[in-house]
Amino acid sequence: METFLLTVRNLNAWYNREKMVLTNFSLELARQEVVGLIGLNGTGKTTFLKVISGLLPTFQSDGILFSGKPVNPREKTFKMCRYTVFAEDNSFPYFTFLEYISYVFSAYKKNMPDISALVQGFHFENYTDTLLKDLSTGNRKKAFLITAFALKPVLLFLDEPVNGLDFQSTEYLYRQIAGYKEHGTLLFSSHILESITLTSDRVYVLENGAIKQTFGRGKLSAANIREALRYENNL
Ligand SMILES: Nc1ncnc2c1ncn2[C@@H]1O[C@H](COP(=O)(O)OP(=O)(O)OP(=O)(O)O)[C@@H](O)[C@H]1O
């Protein structure tokens, strides 16, 4: 039987106990697949990424399994296998991109590869020595995306990676996302249907804090996703 790379069983998560954000949220990610996560605003996509990235401790679940073994998102061994790019990230304001990426590689105990193709692909040549706090929102996001694709963790999470990127970088990003399955597993949230249909093996549709549908290859079309979202919104 296939062991999934990541299994999440019946996850409940909240910011305050009166209002559950995720309820019985379950998903499975295979090794080396690219999966989209879509849902209306406020359905809990970022909240899931916060839980799995160890940033939100207020959750309960029937199990989070990494390679078949139960893990806590805050565990170091699990941390070293994943990296998350959040939609907005103001961390490390006084690091330049080059300082940040070398810090990340040393924290993950990996040697930094040649990153020039990624820097060029994201049109980031002129910003590598600028403090992260002084970059525009889109350029700051590129700093974290380049770090992610250079690091190539077994498990990569991207929260709305397309938002704020210029057109040329978006096309490059789609190629990086689609090609990620050569290295590992990538889950990304997006509101842009094309970003999912052009890159993903599967898509999960999130509704009111739980996974309501999943479409695999063959069924993964903009029309099907739109239909699922329309149903969700009772339109
Ligand atoms: N820090 C917080 N404190 C309290 N409630 C929060 C907090 N962050 C998010 N929420 C609430 O949790 C719910 C889910 O938010 P979340 O950001 O996970 O949704 P999302 O699916 O990522 O939305 P979007 O598509 O708009 O980015 C929303 O109702 C939101 O208001």
UniProtKB/TrEMBL annotation:
InterPro entries linked to this entry: AAA+_ATPase (IPR003593), ABC_transporter-like_ATP-bd (IPR003439), ABC_Transporter_VariousFunc (IPR051782), P-loop_NTPase (IPR027417)
Presence of keyword Transport: yes
Bilayer-crossing regions: none
Keywords: ATP-binding, Nucleotide-binding, Transport
Pfam families: ABC_tran
GO molecular function, a single term: ATP hydrolysis activity
SUPFAM superfamilies: P-loop containing nucleoside triphosphate hydrolases
Top-level taxon of origin: Bacteria
Domain ABC transporter as annotated: residue spans: 6-233
Protein name: ABC transporter ATP-binding protein
